[in-house]
Amino acid sequence: MTSNSIDCPGLSAALSEFVASAPDLPACVTEDARRSVLDGLGSMLAGSLEPQARMVQAVVQSLGRADESTVFSAGRSSAAGAALANGVATHTLELDDIHKTSTIHAAAPVISAALAVAEREQAGGTAFLRAVVLGYEAALRIGEAVNPSHYRYWHPTGTVATFGAAVAAGHLIHLNAAQMLDALGSAGTQAAGLWEFNASGAMSKTLHPGKAAMNGVLSADLAKLGFTGAATILEGPRGFFAATTHEHDSSRVTEGLGQMWKISENGYKLYSCCGHTHTAIDAALELRAQQGWTARQVLEQVREVRVFTYGPGWEIVSEQRPRTPYQAKFSLAYVVSAALLEGTVGLEQFIGGRFGPGGVTEPAIAELLGRVHPQVSPELTRMYPAAWPARLEIELMDGRILQRSGDFPRGNMENPVTTTMLEDKFRTLVEPRFGPQVCEQALDLVRHLEDIPDLSVAFSALGQSVQAARA
Are residues 399 and 300 in the same domain? Predict the structure, then answer.
């Protein structure tokens, strides 16, 4: 689909025109944006205490003092700095949202950028929610256009979501269509994020959305001052599509634009690990519950566990002997073992004491790991990315075979979770770290976003409460 000539002329301009003058949002879309903010804020607050988030916060503070926007658990900074720090924090626990056909975790880059600029501009909650919707719209549509080809080498939450962060920030500073096109041009030329970190379990994955958020703010601010960007950044012969894919579908960017809102397709994660493992986790948990197994019974009765998955996902989750918590989050074998043995795959399954230089040290999981054999299914690969399927076969010691399969993990729009469930997830993340009062303050803020005329006041107060709770 790529060529040396311009592909789909005017595509970047058409997208810019839309996001600069989008129609009023349906009420259901605004509510979907609120759900995304709810889920993203929970990960942002909880992740702000993690070591890599703390490192980034320290660097942001060293760049210079500013009082524009909240950096959760670390005071305030410039809007660009807050976008960077909060973007990293949101992605750190691997519990932030995921949109299946674009494979983008949009909350970390888009909401972090939107919140930082909304505070700086003293914008109200309605404008903020609209900016989030438009940012998701740009990011997820471009992601669908390049996926799955782009995914082979590039992490789209770092690359594609840079466009979404620029749109969200640009909306809040009232960029017109020409300025928005410049912002997209500057965003695209900064879009980056390579999968090589996965080989060693490096921290780069969390840096990707933080930089996407920061670069989006920078791109919008530059455009406001007249700094120009490539007018054909998506479709040009040396633009984003040509450079980062060997096959793409430009029509996905504009198909149903203004009629089908991508944020309403958003998915939410219930397990603290890579989303490509979640359908298999669901299947393992269902089989465990069906059999009424204890951990001891699993080890006594299970001879072999065969996990069938799709190729692009397997490339990310193929670690067989995780030696660190981070590697375990990208180990299909580990998370299925944990699900079968412990009946949950939460933060506690990824604590440091479970791993060592030789691999998993938790005895039961270490024993079961040798019986878990993931493999790629060509049939399931053909279903991706429209579905994220998994098939589980458990062979018992007596020769019986138990089977369970699914095409969509819990939390996807085809297998949805309620807002009440998202609020429960929020509480499990925020309350143990900051206490019930801060948790309810944050929940109340999200529930009444549209009634808030100046987010800088509300989020500054929340930031102060967060810091006081940790003092």
Answer: yes
